Amino acid sequence: MFGRIGAGELIIILIIVLVIFGPSKLPQIGKSMGEAIKEFRKGTQSVEKEIKDLTDPASDEK
Fold first, then answer.
1. How far apart are the first and last CA of the chain?
2. How many CB atoms lie within 10 A of CB 25?
């Protein structure tokens, strides 16, 4: 799921984030990251759709 990051590395990263930002900021950071990922996916889907529309001339005839 996370590529080549193992469970141990993930735990270390989470501990470092907890130390840097503190427990009160974690929900806000998680929400911001989730929204950023959602917007990124939406952007990539629209680019893929535009490329597909440009390369598929049959879709213009329908």
1. 39
2. 13
Instruction: With a cut of 90, say whether residue 29 has pLDDT above it.
Output: no
Q: Can you tell me the distance from the alpha carbon of 37 to that of 29, in angstroms, rounded to the nearest whole number?
A: 12
Distance CA 31, CA 38 (A): 11
Question: According to the model, what pLDDT value does residue 37 have?
Answer: 94
Q: Running DSSP on this structure, what letter comes out for residue 6?
A: -
- 8 A C-beta contact, residue 26 and residue 18: yes
Under the banding of pLDDT at 50, 70 and 90, the label for residue 34 is very high
Residue 1 is classified by DSSP as -
What is this structure's pTM?
0.57
**Helix residue ranges, H only, 1-62:** 7-21, 26-55, 58-61
